[in-house]
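TICKET: design request
STATUS: open
ATTACHED STRUCTURE:
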């Protein structure tokens, strides 16, 4: 019997000693005057050469060390959509300091929980970004932007398996998990460059996301820089109607975005894009209809990828691989991926199973910070189980079947309903509350809150309280009063039944 395991090819192990930031910037040393980054609008462009970018990053490393941070210390990043974000991120890693990038949409209430959990040694705080009052040393733009001009620090070289950075994700427990990644995580991304991007040094990659999104940080910035290519980021506030024009003006050869961005672009006229080789999509499932529409209008393919905070992207379609239409693609060469039962045992080819990554994958997280038991539970079988279900063919093509848990998808962000419900506990007048995401039209889902109460409550007031406790993308877009929560005989919420309780 053939089992659903993909294990083809291998890459050389990560060298040692190693530093993630040094690896990202090494190619640019050979082309110091080449444009590494441009921030563009239809009428303006701000560019950084590789020499300028590297100087700012290594100067930031010097600045962090000068103010007393040391290798291994944790640095919380509360920055907006600006070039300060990647410079600070790589500057910290260059110095061996562990950055924690966070969404600028988080409220002070949410950030306070991160401070309690991680006890960072410092905070970088951008203008207008929420952060609670704290005694932790906090550095604002007039300080950390001045660090760009300092003399370069040496790279902190060491074990590639040591902690490099921490990112937050919502888990099925409803508790946002702090995911710790090693320096070697960047080494594993070469599998993506071959198995998803077909990325080359001469490419110009335009990513539609904001600087402070991890999808942008990896696919849009660090990967092009690792190859010595040019990264393009739209200026903050760019209208989706302008993105196609920016693709044309910048001569972009690769475009990366969430599927929803492609959907927005196609609402407007799309100019000729003679330089564009292909598009990349991740963050949510790409529909066949959207892929077909883009091909008809823009004349290029979109290649999809599947991943998560714990292991970036590891299943994808690509220009060099012929995969079945409608599938996610195949595991990238060098990965070891399986479909398993709930106990972590691979299932036969053609049988539904849980997408799982082998624990030895170099791109897989080190673990959940401060949650050792949760980490052990995830790796108990030797496989990291994602919780998403799929079917694999004999060629390794994987068809996505949906989430086995109740995770919601809000504009490309995975959001736990339990986290939202916990934050909204105690709303005035609400007896019980539950949330789920509801399809409002093809490929668009919105977080919806259902509640029981003696009378219908003022929706604006409920939304206002939610906005004070949750990032915008986690907030319910509507509140619906129902007579009773759908539950089974044991009193367990039947969350899937909520979708049938939306008023006609």
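STATUS: resolved
RESOLUTION: sequence designed for all positions
ATTACHED SEQUENCE:
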């Amino acid at each position: 019997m053939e089992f659903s395991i993909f294990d083809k090819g291998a890459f050389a192990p990560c060298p040692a000693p190693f530093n993630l930031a040094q690896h990202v910037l090494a190619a640019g040393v050979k082309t110091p005057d080449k444009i590494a980054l441009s921030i563009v609008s239809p009428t303006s462009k701000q560019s950084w050469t590789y020499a300028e970018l590297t100087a700012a990053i290594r100067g930031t490393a010097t600045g962090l060390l000068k103010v007393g941070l040391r290798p291994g210390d944790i640095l919380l990043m509360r920055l907006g959509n600006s070039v300060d974000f990647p410079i600070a991120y790589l500057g910290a890693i260059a110095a061996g300091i562990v950055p924690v990038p966070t969404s600028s949409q988080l409220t002070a209430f949410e950030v306070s929980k991160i401070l309690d959990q991680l006890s960072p040694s410092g905070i970088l705080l951008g203008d207008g970004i929420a952060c609670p009052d704290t005694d932790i040393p906090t550095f604002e733009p007039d300080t950390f932007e001045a660090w760009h001009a300092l003399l370069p620090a040496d790279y902190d070289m060491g074990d590639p398996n040591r902690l490099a950075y921490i990112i937050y994700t919502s888990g099925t427990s409803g508790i946002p998990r702090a995911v710790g990644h090693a320096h070697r995580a960047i080494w594993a991304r070469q599998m993506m460059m071959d198995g998803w991007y077909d990325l080359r040094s001469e490419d110009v990659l335009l990513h539609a996301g904001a600087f402070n999104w991890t999808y942008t940080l990896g696919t849009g910035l660090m990967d092009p820089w690792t190859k010595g290519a040019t990264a393009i980021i739209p200026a903050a506030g760019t209208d989706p109607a302008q993105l196609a024009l920016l693709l044309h003006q910048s001569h972009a050869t690769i475009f990366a975005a969430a599927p929803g961005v492609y959907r927005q672009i196609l609402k407007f006229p799309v100019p000729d894009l003679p330089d564009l080789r292909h598009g990349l999509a991740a963050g949510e499932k790409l529909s066949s209809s959207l892929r077909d529409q883009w091909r008809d209008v823009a004349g290029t393919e979109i290649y999809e990828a599947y991943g998560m905070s714990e292991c970036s992207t590891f299943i994808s379609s690509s220009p060099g691989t012929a995969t079945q239409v409608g599938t996610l693609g195949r595991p990238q060469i060098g990965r070891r991926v399986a479909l398993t039962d709930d106990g972590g045992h691979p299932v036969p080819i053609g049988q539904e199973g849980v997408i799982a990554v082998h624990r030895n994958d170099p791109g897989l997280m080190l673990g959940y910070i401060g949650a050792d038991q949760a980490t052990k539970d995830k790796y108990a079988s030797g496989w990291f189980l994602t919780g998403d279900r799929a079917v694999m063919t004999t060629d390794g093509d994987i068809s996505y079947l949906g989430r086995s848990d109740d995770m919601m998808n809000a504009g490309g962000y995975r959001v736990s309903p339990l986290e939202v419900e916990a934050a909204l506990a105690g709303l005035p007048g609400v007896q019980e509350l539950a949330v789920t995401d509801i399809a409002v039209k093809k490929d668009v889902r919105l977080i919806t809150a259902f509640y029981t109460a003696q009378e219908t409550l003022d929706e604006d007031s409920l939304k206002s309280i939610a906005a004070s406790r949750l990032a915008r993308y986690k907030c319910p877009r509507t509140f619906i009063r129902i007579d009773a929560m759908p539950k089974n005989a044991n009193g367990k919420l039947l969350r899937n039944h909520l979708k049938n309780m939306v008023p006609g």
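CLOSING REMARK: Residues 349 and 394 are 6 Å apart (CA to CA). The two ends are 48 Å apart (CA to CA).
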